[in-house]
């Protein structure tokens, strides 16, 4: 079997065209969605992520604001910037690029963001709403994966979804969203014993570990759908996922590549969340958060 490719670039493009239309509609009533990104320090990966987020938001017609702060910024100064953005009516989405320098408490900063502008979906209030199935901003990576599965026609109800990884931004919320769509969900992590015995049962296997080409054909059931969240560098410095694509595509029925899979969807969902925040702030809310 050679797996069907789940193309995050194409699906993301389709979705961004819809978002762009949504932005144009809002602009007719003089409401321009605004996304503010706070970048602390000079981490090269963070700079690239932020650049891509800004570029994408401008492409769909949003206002984009970047606040660059030195790595030496104090926690209070950073909190003051967040507060200013909370009070700025032209800003509908606030994103603080993580990780932050060690002297700053990330939890405190996330909690300082107005939950109505928390387009990353990391604020505990929004995480709680997601857990109980209320409308809220969903975290972008798992939300993007749900959208990919939907647009690829992958059936979720009654399927066994196995997730490797239990981070707050990917693994944990991923399981919740799949559960809400009636999958049977198993979480695996670094303390899981005999990992393949679990992953081999997966109809849908989501891999979010952060280790290059860790998952091979030996972890995958024939015909499974494999979603690779990982973003790593291989021995030649080339971008690669957590899944060994060449081996996995021989057994999977469908698989996401890296690059060109989950990554583009993550940014797209950030734009979708920002649009929804603006629609809600400008009184044009549509009931389409999930
Ligand atoms: P993380 O916070 O480091 O979490 C990694 C998870 O993998 C942890 O739960 C860990 O288990 C588990 N793990 C580590 N080694 C394992 C092993 N040998 N067997 C089974 N489980 C193992 O990472 P993350 O933020 O979720 O990100 C995961 C990957 O996705 C990274 O490569 C990251 O760069 C990438 N990512 C991509 C996007 C995107 O848009 N494409 C977005 C976010 C993240 P414990 O909990 O037991 O430590």
Q: How would you summarize this macromolecular structure in one to three sentences?
A:
By secondary structure, the chain is an alpha/beta fold. Helix content is 40%, strand content 15%.
User: What structural class is derived from the secondary structure elements?
Assistant: alpha/beta
Query: What is the helix fraction of residues, given as a range?
Result: 40-55%
Q: What is the helix/strand order? A: EHEHEHEHHHEHEHEEEEHEH
Low-confidence runs: none
Q: Count of helical segments?
A: 10
Q: How is the largest sheet built, in terms of strand order?
A: 1-11-8-7-5-6
Rg: 19 Å
- Quaternary state reads single chain
Largest sheet: 6 strands, parallel
The number of distinct β-strands equals 11
Strand content: 15-25%
Averaged pLDDT:
96
The unique ligands bound to this protein are: NADP nicotinamide-adenine-dinucleotide phosphate
The first-to-last residue Cα distance is 33 Å
Question: What general form does the structure show?
Answer: globular
Describe this structure in words.
The strands form 3 sheets. This protein has a 6-stranded parallel sheet. It has a 3-stranded parallel sheet with strand order 3-2-4, with helices on both faces. The mean pLDDT is 96. The protein is globular, with a radius of gyration of 19 Å. The chain has 10 helices and 11 strands. The longest helix is centred in the N-terminal third of the chain and has 21 residues, at 8-28. 40% of the residues lie in helices and 15% in strands. Helix 2 (44-59) links the parallel strand 2 and strand 3 (63-69). The chain is an alpha/beta fold. The protein has helices at residues 8-28, 44-59, 75-86, 106-112, 124-131, 140-152, 171-180, 195-199, 245-248, 262-281, and strands at residues 4-5, 34-40, 63-69, 93-96, 160-164, 184-188, 204-207, 225-228, 232-233, 239-240, 254-255.
